[in-house]
UniProtKB/TrEMBL annotation:
Domain ER-bound oxygenase mpaB/mpaB'/Rubber oxygenase catalytic, first and last residues per copy: 19-242
InterPro entries, sorted: MPAB/Lcp_cat_dom
Organism encoding this protein: Clavibacter michiganensis
Pfam families attached to this UniProt entry: MPAB_Lcp_cat (PF09995)
GO molecular function: oxidoreductase activity
Name this protein carries in UniProt: ER-bound oxygenase mpaB/mpaB'/Rubber oxygenase catalytic domain-containing protein
């Protein structure tokens, strides 16, 4: 029997059909490294974040926010907005970095928030289509529009989100062509992909995560982070990822979305401040 297509690949496919898929977590480190490839984001993380000691907590907080604004009630969206607003309030500097590597910045900057939302959206689509195949045009257009909520729930004006997928590709290509990972960004990458602390189970899977992350990154950004890549690593990446995706595709949806259920429960226990 031919398996039924994924709901996102049927007529009416929408963001809720994609955003809860656990396999998207495999692109989580990719999204983070793309975010910090922007010098202002990297500086904010370096100067105002406990990322170095709690990278998984930061990732969980980001995922909790995504799940709240995509799947939550209006009250849950408002609560998530307050949580993020409280975290963003101190993340700012009125002066450029002393070494000239980054300008003045604020976590409330709509352009920076747009970039963060764009990395989440583009990484999600990249991972989803690797696993399940290309989205139909109609669904892809709808999902593109709906992913704007990651930014517009905060300080991103609706008109700042690229109007369609073609406009998004132009925006994306321009950003990728001009980003230069700084020393701060490379430190974040080392902390994320080669953690010295944390549960043994997490440390055990990080070589796989590091390989997948390097394989998913645009070549120019991968090189900017100093990640080695060659034909041998490309083959290893393909050999490791293919069976993972094959097994994941046949899991029941409840199992595939179990991480969302766990993270959502934990996020609901956070104080909004």
């Amino acid at each position: 029997m031919t398996p039924r297509p994924h709901p996102a690949r049927r007529p009416g496919g929408a963001i809720r059909d994609i955003a809860g898929e656990g396999i998207l977590l495999a692109a989580g480190a990719r999204a983070i490294l793309l975010q910090v490839a922007d010098p202002s984001v990297a500086r904010g993380v370096a100067e105002h974040s406990d990322f170095a000691s709690r990278p998984l907590d930061r990732l969980e907080g980001t995922l909790g926010y995504i799940y709240a604004v995509v799947f939550g009630s209006p009250a849950e969206v408002a609560r998530a907005r307050r949580i993020v607003g409280r975290a963003h309030a101190p993340v700012r500097s009125a002066v450029p970095a002393a070494d000239g590597s980054a300008p003045a910045y604020s976590a409330y900057d709509p352009e920076l928030q747009l970039w963060v939302a764009a990395t989440v959206y583009q990484s999600a689509i990249t991972m989803f289509e690797l696993c399940f195949g290309p989205l139909p045009e109609e669904s892809a257009d709808r999902i593109h529009r709906q992913y704007a909520v990651l930014g517009t729930a905060l300080q991103v004006p609706e008109e700042l989100w690229p109007a369609d997928r073609a406009a998004f590709r132009v925006y994306w290509d321009e950003r990728i062509a001009t980003l230069e990972p700084t020393a701060d960004a490379r430190r974040v990458a080392r902390t994320l992909l080669d953690p010295r602390d944390g549960p043994p189970a997490i440390r055990a899977v990080m070589p796989f995560v590091a390989l997948v992350t390097a394989g998913l990154l645009p070549p120019r950004i991968r090189a900017g982070f100093g990640m080695r890549w060659d034909a041998r690593l490309e083959r290893r990446y393909a050999r490791l990822l293919a069976p993972v995706l094959a097994v994941y595709r046949v899991l029941p949806r409840a199992v595939r979305e179990a991480p969302r259920s766990v993270i959502t429960r934990r996020y609901r226990r956070r104080s909004p401040g």
